[in-house]
Structures are given as C-alpha cells and as structure tokens.
C-alpha cells in the first residue's frame, strides 16, 4: 500500500531467476527500505547513485588493468568531481547531519579510494579554520601512511609534541603545516615527502610519508582545540591537566572511528548482496539425479551467510544510533559546553567507537572471506568484486587505531566503573550503555532458563546472557588485575597480563551487548509495522544467538549455562532462524543493495542472470579473445628440454 511516489523512488527489479525467492518473501522490500531510511535519504541516495552512473569519469573499465599511477590519477579526478557535485548544501547538513553519513557511504559503495580521499579533504577543510618549528627527530618518528600525502596534499594536520620556549613540555597538539607548494606541488624547503608504495587495497588513494627539518610555521597554525600559545611564547589552556588535554586532542579520532564502523558495515552490505543473490541462483546437486537446487537451500550455506545478513541489519541500526550520539557530542563541542555531561559523553563515545570499529571491521573481514568462498570459483574472479571488498575493508582493522589496541580503551572505561560498583555509589552514563552494570550483583546470579528451542527464538534470550557475560567478564578482569598487582607486578605488567580472555573479551562482549540491546529495543518497538516486525525480530534473534554462540565456553565456565541442553537449544535455534530467514534473504538484500552500476559485480546483479552477466563482462575485456603478444615464445621458440641442465 505504498503511495505512488514511493514506487518511482524504488523501482521494481528486472524479472529473472531471482523472482522465485522474491515472491517467497514474507514482507515488501520497499516498505522495509522506507522504514529503515525514510524518503529524504532514499532520494539522496538515488541522486548520488544516478549522478555517478551518468558521469563518464566514473565509468567502469571491465577487463582493463589500471596501473597504480593511472588509478591514483583517476581517483584524484573523481575526488575533484565530488567537490563539484557538492551533493549536500550546508542547510541540508544542519537539518539532518545523518545525510553526510549516507553521502559518504553511497560514494564508498562505488569505490572507497575516491571516497576516503574526498572525506579526508572535506573533513580537514571543514574542521580546522605560533611561531612554531616542526622537527622529525629521526626516521622512526617520520609521519608514515598519511592519506592523500603521497602525491598531492599541500597541507597536513600534524600531531606533534609541543615544547614552549621555557622548555616545558605541554603535551600532544595538532598543527597545520604546509608541505607542498600549491602552484607547483613541489615540497616546501625542509620537508621530505613522498609515496609509501603499493598497498594490499585502496590503491587509488595515495598514502605518503613526511619528515620535517626545522620547518617554520606561523603561530596561528596551532589547531587550538585544547591549548594555545601567546606571542610571548606562554602556554595557556582551558584544560589544565596534561592527560585531559591529551584526550581532548584525540577527541576527533572518535569521528573517524565512527565513520569506519559505518564503512565496514557498508562492506557487509556489498559482500552479502553479491553472495546471497548468487546463492539464490547458483544450483548444485539435489535430492535426485535430475533436480539441482539453489545452494541457498543447503543448511551449511544458510548458516555461513544468514548470520552475517542479520549482523548487517543490527550493525546498520547501531551505526545510525552511534552517529546520532556523535552528533550530540559535536554539538556540545561547537557550543563550547564545559559540563560534566559533555565530558561524560566524550568518554562514552570514545569507549563505544573504540570497540565498535573492531567489532564491525572484523565482522566485515570475516564475512567478505565467507562470501568469497560461498560463491565458489566465481567468488575468486576479480570482476565479481569480493576480493576488492575484502582488501579494501582490511585496513579498517588497523587505521585510526589497531583493533586490539583500541579494545583496551573500552575495557579501561568499563573497569573504571568498578569503584562505583564496589562502593555501591549510584551511576549512569549519558547514552545509558553502562547502566546494565547498575544491577551487577544481581545479574551475576542469573542463569540460562530457556526450556526449549522455541523459547530461544527471541533476542531477549541472548540479551540476558550478554548482560550476565559483561558483568562476569568485568568481575573476572578486575579480580585478575588485583591478583597481578598483589603478586608484585607493575601496573604496566599487570594490565598487559589481563588482556587475553579477560579485558579483551570484556570489551567485545560489551559492544556486542550494546549493539544487540539497541537492535532488540528497535525491533520490539510497538511502532514497527506488523508486516515487518516478524522478519526484523528473527534478524535480531539470529544476530544475538549467533554472536553469543562464540562465547559458549565462558557461559559454561562461569556457571551461567549448565548441562547439554542449553548449548543445543542455542545451536538449534540458530539453525531454525537461518531456515526461517532463507526465503526472505533475497528481499533483505534488495533493501540495501545499491544499483547494479554501483555494486559492479556480474554475479550480484539484481536480474540474477548469473551466466549471462558473467559472459557479458568477460567478453567486454579488451584483450579477451586476442592471442598473447608473446605467442611466438610458445609456438616458435620452443624449449629444448634439458638444454640448460648441468653437464658436470
Ligand atoms: C579529521 C580527519 C578524520 C578522518 C576520518 C574519516 C574516516 C574515513 C575513513 C577512513 C580513513 C582512514 C584514515 C586513517 C587515518 C589514521 O589512521 S590517522 C591516525 C590515527 N591514529 C590513531 O588512531 C592512533 C591510535 N592510538 C591511540 O589513539 C592511542 O595510542 C591510544 C590507543 C589512545 C592509547 O594511548 P595511551 O597513551 O596509552 O593513552 P591512555 O593512557 O590509554 O589514554 C589517556 C586518556 O585519554 C583518553 N582518550 C584516549 N583517546 C581518546 C579519545 N579519542 N577520545 C576521548 N578520550 C580519549 C583515555 O580514555 C584516557 O583517559 P583516562 O582513562 O586517563 O581518563
Ligand atoms: C591504509 C592505511 C591508511 C592510513 N592512513 C593514515 C593517515 O591518513 N594518517 C595517519 O596518521 N595514519 C594513517 N595510518 C596509520 C594507522 O593509523 C596505524 O597503522 C595504526 O594506528 C596502527 O599503528 P601501527 O601501524 O603503528 O601499529 P603498531 O602499533 O606497530 O601495531 C603492530 C601490532 O602490535 C600490536 N600492539 C601494539 N601495541 C600493543 C599493545 N599496547 N598491546 C597489545 N598489542 C599491541 C597491535 O595489535 C598490532 O597488531 C594508515 C594506515 C593504513 C593501513
């Protein structure tokens, strides 16, 4: 019952082999798309997708190998074009900041290289409006990996240790430093700048290095987020404590980590769109010799893919909610809030995105590999794009902070609440993510109580288990830390010895619980249309149970679960949910898959004409039917077997 205008915003898919599954879906994919994104965002996505599709600069080059140099050039031209499109007005951004988030992800769905290049320029220009001397003491201290710096950036935001003329160390600060001449692109005297070389992915983007030798920059170029220096060289800061200034200087990293959480989630969307459409069409074997069935009908294939589909939905919702949290944080910064609430928001956001980036980038990394294998040999064909998605997703696990290192930030935050728990002091956090710890003592007594598989089919079951898990891992991590300290270890050693199986697991369980809590609340909201709620609840339950199943050992170890049944119920409920969702799977990816031009994968096309699409692409290769240029080496200069064998 969608109004006519919705039909034109979300056109029907072409008829073809995927119709069989589309007809079996329990819900209307357009209604779902409208629920999840809303009219404005769908219009924005269409606007961006169709601009890229109609622009010759963005045309794909099937079967052509671009050199890195050419790819970097093309990426730069595309990045410039993105500035020309200027997809969003300032007014639109003010009215709905979520639009920037969608704009970035739409461009990224096409290719992450121009997207990230554009984003780095865009954010650096937008966010930053003494007589200092910048020095790189040695090669190990060189700036390395910097996006856009390899070939073309003219200015860099440089994080450096600030020493004032009185010799005092003032902590980490950021400075705007010119590195190349804006007319010639040649380096500024005192700067050695260059390209770091080929990467595993994202090769359109030029990452560079820079070393500074007595480079003088004007006093105004300190980006005085936390502190400033007067003309006389006196340091002043509204944030008195060096440690607090450090965290203020690093505050901007939360935005990057939030964006990367969403970038990774978008890679999940791309990989699953391809693998699920492929699986619904690709037939192999069957119950009888003359009947072949789609590989999606196999239990293993369902179990390999559908939990990732559920994760995509849960993480998509989480990303939007995290972005809203971040917007609140930035509004506070812009209006110069100095309240305790603003400080608490900063800490909570930091703890959330320091764990959501690892969770989402790892999930996407594993999903991309699983999707690659789930498409068999076709998954390994570069034109089908799963290799590119996997390789381009990979650095999400590393940049803006290595995942394993970042998880320590989240566990530190959680551990910091132990004194309130111990002293029974009331506490809460602005976004409520740690409020579960208010019931810490009570929750630790909880047990797994489901009596049947059917009992487990709602996300309330894994959610309760997660609450217990977070409290349990917090208690164990705290105990372990105390024991390490009691046995005479230094703070550094003690903390280091508490990571594996304790703090690291705690941070992961916490973020999974937070994602699940938000998604559970959303899917159980009475305002969700009754036509969509059943499938959304199934996704929520599957995401929760599947994520939880990786912690089964700890659930038993800590006494939350006992006996054979608990584990069996969870496993059987996962399989049952996969089975229930398999007929909805194609419609569920139709909701988020970008148009064919953007997805750029013959086996992932919306018409499901697997073989025709692959053939079409293979035959477009400029040299597909040519004999090789070195054909004479094969046909004429034949090897004389043993000619070079040692005669000794
Ligand atoms: C502008 C451009 C953006 C572009 C966004 C676009 C993205 C688009 C896609 C991707 C594009 C790729 C582009 C890659 C770009 C790079 O990769 S840029 C380089 C990024 N580099 C990093 O992220 C470095 C990672 N390392 C770190 O952040 C630090 O080593 C760590 C992890 C914070 C640990 O440092 P540490 O010295 O051990 O500090 P620690 O004692 O734990 O912390 C001190 C205090 O500061 C607090 N703190 C630390 N960090 C924060 C924070 N961020 N917020 C609040 N408080 C904090 C701590 O909680 C702690 O507080 P207390 O517990 O004392 O109260
Ligand atoms: C594609 C790409 C683009 C990038 N772009 C930029 C950019 O634009 N600007 C920029 O400034 N940087 C950029 N970087 C650099 C990036 O931010 C760093 O690579 C990242 O923060 C990790 O730091 P590192 O490389 O020094 O790793 P290291 O710190 O050397 O880590 C190596 C390994 O040691 C482990 N480890 C380190 N410390 C600990 C610890 N305390 N406890 C346990 N394990 C530990 C890590 O888990 C990791 O596995 C980019 C990186 C990549 C890959």
From TrEMBL:
Pfam family for this entry, one: ACOX_C_alpha1
Classification of source organism: Eukaryota, Metazoa, Chordata, Craniata, Vertebrata
Keywords assigned by UniProt, alphabetized: FAD, Fatty acid metabolism, Flavoprotein, Lipid metabolism, Oxidoreductase, Peroxisome
Gene Ontology MF annotations: FAD binding; fatty acid binding; pristanoyl-CoA oxidase activity
Active-site feature positions: 400
InterPro entries: ACOX_C_alpha1 (IPR055060), Acyl-CoA_Oxase/DH_mid-dom_sf (IPR046373), Acyl-CoA_oxidase (IPR012258), Acyl-CoA_oxidase_C (IPR002655), AcylCo_DH-like_C (IPR036250), AcylCoA_DH/oxidase_NM_dom_sf (IPR009100)
Domain Acyl-CoA oxidase C-alpha1 per the UniProt entry, residue ranges: 251-415
Family: Belongs to the acyl-CoA oxidase family.
Pathway annotation from the record: Lipid metabolism; peroxisomal fatty acid beta-oxidation
Annotated GO biological process: fatty acid beta-oxidation using acyl-CoA oxidase; lipid homeostasis
Domain of life the protein comes from: Eukaryota
GO (cellular component) term, any one: peroxisome
PANTHER family named among the record's database cross-references: ELECTRON TRANSPORT OXIDOREDUCTASE (PTHR10909), PEROXISOMAL ACYL-COENZYME A OXIDASE 3 (PTHR10909:SF390)
Residues reported in the UniProt entry to bind FAD: 147
Cofactor needs: FAD
Function, as annotated: Oxidizes the CoA-esters of 2-methyl-branched fatty acids.
Subcellular location(s) of the protein: Peroxisome
Catalytically driven reaction(s): tetracosanoyl-CoA + O2 = (2E)-tetracosenoyl-CoA + H2O2; a 2,3-saturated acyl-CoA + O2 = a (2E)-enoyl-CoA + H2O2; hexadecanedioyl-CoA + O2 = (2E)-hexadecenedioyl-CoA + H2O2; (2S)-pristanoyl-CoA + O2 = (2E)-pristenoyl-CoA + H2O2
Protein known as: Acyl-coenzyme A oxidase
Domain Acyl-CoA oxidase C-terminal stretches: 460-635
